[in-house]
Amino acid sequence: MKTMNCKQLGGACDKEFSANTFDEMAELSKQHGMEMHKAQDAAHLEAMQEMQALMKNPGDMESWFESKRHEFKSLAED
């Protein structure tokens, strides 16, 4: 199991997520993002706008995901 926080995953806070795979980690982050969107958290909404800008160019988004996968792989196990 490895741990990353919301900011490491493109978010706006220090909430930590623990998962066995990067895909699991991404899903936890996505769920948190949906909760923060529902709560209309200003900092998270701003981070989401930045992510949406990345999504406009599929190559940029894929590069971002690859960098996060690499970061996850390089983390020590909890």
Can you describe this structure?
The structure is a single chain. This protein is mainly alpha-helical and 78 residues long. The chain has one domain. Helix content is 62%, strand content 10%. It is built from three helices and two strands; from the N terminus they run E-E-H-H-H. The protein has a two-stranded antiparallel sheet.
List the helices and strands and how they pair.
Layout (H helix, E strand, L loop, with lengths): L1 E4 L10 E4 L2 H17 L3 H14 L2 H17 L4
Antiparallel strand pairs: 1-2
Question: What would the keywords be for this entry?
Answer:
single chain; 78 residues; mainly alpha; two-stranded antiparallel sheet; 3 helices; 2 strands; globular
Summary?
The protein has about 80 residues and is mainly alpha-helical. It has helices at about 20-40, 40-55, 60-75, and strands at about 1-5, 15-20.
Give me the Rg, rounded.
Answer: 12 Å
Distance between termini?
6 Å
Fraction in helix: 55-70%
Strand order of the largest sheet: 1-2
Largest sheet: 2 strands, antiparallel
Structural domain count: 1
